[in-house]
Q: What sequence folds into this?
């Protein structure tokens, strides 16, 4: 194999190890953090300063500003976050992403295999999930540096290539060309952390004089700026087909990085001198990796400090870029209102949106039950059509939520605790869907009676109305219980369900008595019993919901804590 092929294979192989290690570390960190991710997410709804902090912390855990941005777009799309709040998260994400470059700047070459072995040993021996995740995080950390070391080793011959040195010289002296190179690199790799790691390793190679860096800090900074621009593409792609505020959030990310690149492009040399002054001193090839990391951090800190007080201006800019008007790709009513499959890799955020979707399904069913009301001895045709329409929507949402659960389980991203809570949420969703379909059956049965010549007596209609009102009352109380209302009396709900069971038995006896006296048509006995049977089944499903609530499996478990 010739030297060129060795360099290419070594570079792409090292990059693959680096990205794999970084993704693995992200996944294991999330699992190790577990429920603490909810506390970080809770900061998202606070003031801009806390929003910046939340964005930085979340990105430090996810090891990717793109992942944080995509998650933020998901929250905005679901209506759980306002545009100004989302922009503050984006600002923080840009600071958090510099953590990777700072870690890379540490010289731990001699300890790479120690990290890999220690991480493997901990994850292999431990039986506890949290400890195992910590071990895998350490293992992934070692892999990350192994990838960097591999890339560094294969880059050394490039420093002696006259062609390559001449090409790098052009990039170093034409800043705009450096910006383009950085943007293209990140577009291809889809990770600014990875391209900055490559830049740090390459810059640490000695030039022809054997002392100074082959590119120098002033030559590296424009490429760094281009890396920041390239990472915005992921956010733009994630916003396609989303509501306008989600697209505005993606454009805010673009505005932040492009405005910063333009500003710093005119200040490359003085900024490089400042970074060299505040960074550790020593031979350039020994300290340039840290200088690049500090330049990356400094750029994002300065731009964040500039934009925090100007968030209202940022809002105006992105509203101009994405004006009000006809929505592109607005979700149809039967499509999920909150779900976002792009967040499967971030289970804490994904489960929060799933819980919102389940509660939305619960609200749909409550509206369906509310339409089971008689007027002048009949069910309105309009109400019957609404129940039918909502039942079809419910079925589609039920399928979508279950598909989301399947993706979370198959992705292996859930902790044991999250998997257990998710199973409880599936039980809740199943009973909510069952109640919805039973409500639909009741409406269909009663609607047939409207069209026939056989009519219920006033007493029968009065009893049916009372039963439906009680069902709506107990169902509403159940939904309050599973939503985490600590004031709900579970024992009282169980008693109400018993009342419904007794009412159903009493209604059957009364109907038979009315038929015997000629007050009700005997041909209505079967549909009447069908309605009562479905009311009983709704009551049973309500009991299931109450029992789930008694086991402290509530939607509140998935929401970010205040």
A:
């Amino acid at each position: 194999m010739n030297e060129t092929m060795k360099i290419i294979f070594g570079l792409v192989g090292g990059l693959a190890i680096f990205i794999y290690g970084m993704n693995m570390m992200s996944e294991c960190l999330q699992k190790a953090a577990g429920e603490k991710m909810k506390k970080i997410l809770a900061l998202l709804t606070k003031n801009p300063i806390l929003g910046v902090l939340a964005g930085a912390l979340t990105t430090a855990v996810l090891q990717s500003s793109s992942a944080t941005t995509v998650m933020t777009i998901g929250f905005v799309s679901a209506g759980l976050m306002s545009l100004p709040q989302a922009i503050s998260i984006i600002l923080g994400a840009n600071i958090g992403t510099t953590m990777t470059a700072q870690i890379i700047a540490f010289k731990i070459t001699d300890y790479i295999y120690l990290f890999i072995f220690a991480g493997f040993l901990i994850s292999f021996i431990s039986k506890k999930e949290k400890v195992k995740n910590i071990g895998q995080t350490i293992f992934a950390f070692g892999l990350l540096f192994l990838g960097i070391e591999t890339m560094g080793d294969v880059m050394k011959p490039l420093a002696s290539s006259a062609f390559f040195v001449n090409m790098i010289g052009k990039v170093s002296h034409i800043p705009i060309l450096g910006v383009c190179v950085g943007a293209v690199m990140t577009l291809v790799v889809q990770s600014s952390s990875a391209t900055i790691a490559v830049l740090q390793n390459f810059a640490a190679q000695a030039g022809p004089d054997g002392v100074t860096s082959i590119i120098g800090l002033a030559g590296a900074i424009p490429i760094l700026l281009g890396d920041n621009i390239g990472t915005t593409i992921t956010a733009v792609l994630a916003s396609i087909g989303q509501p306008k505020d989600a697209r505005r959030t993606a454009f805010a990310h673009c505005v932040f990085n492009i405005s910063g690149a333009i500003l710093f492009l005119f200040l490359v040399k003085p900024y490089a001198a400042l970074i060299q002054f505040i960074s550790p001193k020593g031979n350039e090839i020994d300290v340039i990796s840290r200088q690049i990391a500090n330049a990356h951090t400094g750029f994002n800190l300065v731009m964040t400090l500039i934009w925090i007080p100007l968030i209202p201006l940022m809002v105006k800019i992105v509203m101009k870029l994405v004006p009000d008007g006809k929505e592109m790709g607005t979700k149809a009513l039967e499509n999920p209102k909150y779900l976002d499959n792009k967040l499967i890799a971030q289970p804490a955020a994904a489960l929060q949106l799933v819980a919102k979707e389940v509660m939305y399904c619960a609200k749909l069913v409550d509206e369906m039950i509310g339409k089971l009301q008689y007027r002048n001895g009949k069910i309105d045709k309009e109400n019957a059509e609404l129940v039918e329409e909502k039942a079809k929507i419910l079925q589609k949402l039920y399928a979508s939520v279950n598909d989301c659960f399947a993706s979370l389980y198959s992705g292996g991203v859930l902790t044991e605790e999250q998997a257990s809570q998710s199973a409880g949420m599936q039980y809740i969703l199943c009973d909510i869907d069952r109640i919805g379909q039973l409500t639909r059956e009741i409406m269909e049965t009663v609607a047939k009676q409207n069209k026939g010549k056989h009519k219920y007596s006033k007493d029968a209609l009065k009893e049916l109305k009372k039963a439906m009102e009680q069902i709506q009352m107990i169902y509403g109380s159940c939904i309050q219980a599973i939503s985490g209302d600590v004031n709900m009396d579970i024992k009282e709900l169980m008693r109400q369900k018993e009342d419904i069971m007794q009412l159903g038995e009493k209604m059957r006896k009364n109907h038979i008595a009315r038929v015997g006296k000629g007050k009700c048509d005997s041909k209505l006995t079967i549909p009447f019993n069908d309605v009562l049977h479905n009311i009983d089944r709704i009551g049973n499903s309500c009991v299931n919901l109450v029992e789930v609530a008694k086991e402290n499996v509530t939607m509140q478990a998935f929401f970010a804590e205040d």
User: Anything to note?
Assistant: Confidence is low (pLDDT under 50) at residues 327-331. The CA atoms of residues 237 and 452 lie 56 Å apart. The chain has two domains: 3-321, 341-558.
